[in-house]
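Researcher: I'd like a structural prediction for the single chain below. Treat it as a standalone chain; there are no partners to consider.
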Amino acid sequence: MASMTATRRQMMQPRLDQPQPGTEAWPLHAALDLGALPTAPGCGRAWTSQILREWQLTHLTDSAQLITSELLTNASLTGRRLDRPAIRLTLLSDHQQLLILVRDYDPGAPVPHHASEDDESGRGLMLVEAISDRWGWCPLADGTPGKLVWAALQALLQPMQHSPVSDESGDL
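Model: Treating it as a single chain, here is the predicted structure.
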């Protein structure tokens, strides 16, 4: 088990290929400031659903809401622990991918916990890792305390494979 933990920790180092929210590559962008409150994940899920509807990316709603909820839960818990009341949720898209970014004031690296079957929490980052196409974190570029945790989802619809369906007579 120790090697698995070491491998996961190595994956949690800041990624150099982190998204760059300020670039022109993201024609669709929206941001929501939230309080570090227990209601933040629910508000973030509802807002994410609305934004994806406006952007015509509704096929990503379930995955995006789950990622948003997990990242906001972690950010709001650390925000309350550190007495830093604000977190920011940002959505970016270039029509090929969706980026979900959550900014908090905790400078520590996000570390997935290995929850037992009886634990009621501790699986959030493992879910983010499983659902997203890629994810990571980075310190804030402006040098202020905190970090940016992000996850990417492919926005393009996968082509459906159509197979002819015939009735019992063999006609299509």
